[in-house]
């Protein structure tokens, strides 16, 4: 994995010659070595059609490609580069994927391994109509970004992140505004607990919860504030 948390708000990436990663534009804090930073007009990978799909879905955050060019003598000709990333003073969580898929909003992405397959998912495909309602409740729209494969992802959050395991038969309920990401074989849907108290403005203020069930992990931030 190329990422290492060096503080709650900064992450270090090791970039081997000939390899690449993607990061949010302007997120580089410092670097060592022969590292190049190139604006990625496709906002990730997958070609032009994939780029168009992400932009239509509103999941195309401005990214840059970070890489160390391969020297003429091969991988041993150029030492690996080191890059430190941080953005807006947000807390950073590194998530390692082992062949599964991470579901995360595009604006949460700080940096991710260039080998991961990037895509988008229609929220209605998980949770049906309530999945679509969830997108409106959270302000995240009808689509979310997916990253699939084996590699590291650095995501941003307010106030730190906790990891909650999701196991069979014991779903996890999360405030939609505090949800950051999830991975594994996890289904998510929006559940409601509207009662007469909510109708007259005397409810608890927790009328909507995001219910995650199956097997995997959900990441929750210590705040209801969006990035």
Topology:
Blueprint: E1 3-7, E2 10-15, E3 20-24, E4 28-32, E5 36-40, H1 47-56, E6 63-67, E7 81-85, E8 91-104, E9 109-113, E10 117-122, H2 128-138, E11 143-157, E12 161-166, E13 172-174, E14 179-192, H3 196-199, E15 208-221
Antiparallel strand pairs: 1-2, 2-7, 3-6, 3-9, 4-7, 5-6, 8-11, 8-14, 9-11, 10-11, 12-15, 13-15, 14-15
InterPro entries: AIM24 (IPR002838), AIM24_sf (IPR036983), Trp_RNA-bd_attenuator-like_dom (IPR016031)
Organism: Streptomyces armeniacus
Protein name: AIM24 family protein
Q: What does the model show?
A:
This is AIM24 family protein. Pfam families: AIM24. InterPro entries: AIM24, AIM24_sf, Trp_RNA-bd_attenuator-like_dom. It comes from Streptomyces armeniacus. The chain has 227 residues and is mainly beta. The protein has a domain at 3-158: Double-stranded beta-helix. The protein has helices at 47-56, 128-138, 196-199; strands at residues 3-7, 10-15, 20-24, 28-32, 36-40, 63-67, 81-85, 91-104, 109-113, 117-122, 143-157, 161-166, 172-174, 179-192, 208-221. Strands 3, 5, 6, 8, 9, 10, 11, 12, 13, 14 and 15 form an eleven-stranded antiparallel beta sheet that branches. A four-stranded antiparallel beta sheet has the order 1-2-7-4, with no helix packed on it. β1 and β2 (10-15) form a beta hairpin. It starts with a strand and ends in a 6-residue tail after the last strand.
């Amino acid at each position: 994995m190329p990422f290492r948390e060096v503080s709650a708000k900064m992450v270090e990436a090791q970039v081997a010659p000939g390899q690449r990663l993607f990061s949010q534009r302007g997120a580089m804090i410092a670097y060592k070595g022969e590292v190049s930073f190139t604006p990625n007009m496709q906002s990730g990978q997958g070609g032009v059609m994939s780029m168009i799909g992400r932009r239509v879905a509103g999941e195309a955050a401005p990214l840059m490609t970070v890489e160390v060019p391969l020297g003429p003598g091969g991988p041993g000709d150029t030492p690996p580069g080191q890059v430190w990333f941080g953005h807006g003073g947000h807390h950073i969580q590194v998530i390692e994927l082992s062949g599964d898929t991470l579901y995360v909003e595009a604006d949460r992405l700080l940096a991710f391994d260039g080998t991961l397959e990037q895509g988008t998912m229609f929220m209605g495909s998980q949770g049906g109509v309530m999945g679509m309602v969830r997108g409106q409740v959270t302000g995240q729209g009808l689509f979310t970004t997916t990253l699939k494969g084996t590699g590291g992802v650095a995501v941003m959050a307010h106030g730190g992140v906790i990891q909650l395991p999701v196991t069979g038969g014991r779903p996890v309920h999360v405030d939609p505004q505090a949800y950051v990401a999830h991975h594994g074989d996890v289904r998510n849907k929006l559940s409601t607990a509207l009662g007469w108290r909510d109708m007259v403005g005397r409810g608890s203020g927790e009328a909507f919860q995001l219910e995650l069930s199956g097997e995997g992990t959900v990441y929750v931030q210590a705040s209801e504030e969006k990035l």
